[in-house]
Amino acid sequence: xSNESFHRVAIVTGAGRGIGRACAVALAQSGFSVCLAARTxxxxxxxxxxxxxxxxxxxxxxxDLAQAEAPAALFEAALDLHGRIDVLVNNAxxxxxxxxxxxxxxxxxxxxxxxxxxxxxxxxxxxxxxxxEREAGTIVNIASNxxxxxxxxxxxxxxxxxxxxxxxxxxxxxxxxxxxKVAAIVPGLVDTGLIPDNKRLNRGAMLRVEDVAGAxxxxxxxxxxxxxxxxxLEPQADPMKR
Length: 242
Prior knowledge:
By secondary structure, the chain is of the alpha/beta class. Helix content is 41%, strand content 16%.
């Protein structure tokens, strides 16, 4: 298949719902073909429907980014179909319910680090290899305020997100001379299904998934010489009821 047959191509991880779905829709509306990666086919098919793109421009890739081989499998599938990747959005994330460190299961510790840190690093490396050949591309990592403002019961998740922020800044320096933009979006509380209902939370004051997707598109559309390494997003009001 000719690389010129379709529009620019974006990979979005965690694309089955929430922020990932909003990013996929925003990219599709801007003319991108999208590669949608997550673990649940039904959710990815719903995202495909939301983008309005036909299957040949909205590849579904089922995988678990906790598995070490998953990043390479995702890139192989995307490049087999499209021959290029212009944008990578590392959105997939995972954490168990808040758990004091002594009670955190080792399996959960490994999964937190694999999904929130190892997989974005591996995917960024793979993207950088082929983007450097064209001296163009955009990599956006969805981080979290948890990497700055830690809370009890989130020690490993906070460490992973802090590591992702540090990695983004270092990769920005490594790759900018190849024409590759690398940036992190650092949102406060976002109203997604991952946050359970809580009487102390005012969901109306939270960020919307579209707010995060808008920040991603700001990076995608920014000139390489003027691309920020980080965009912080905060709700206009405190979602925590006092």
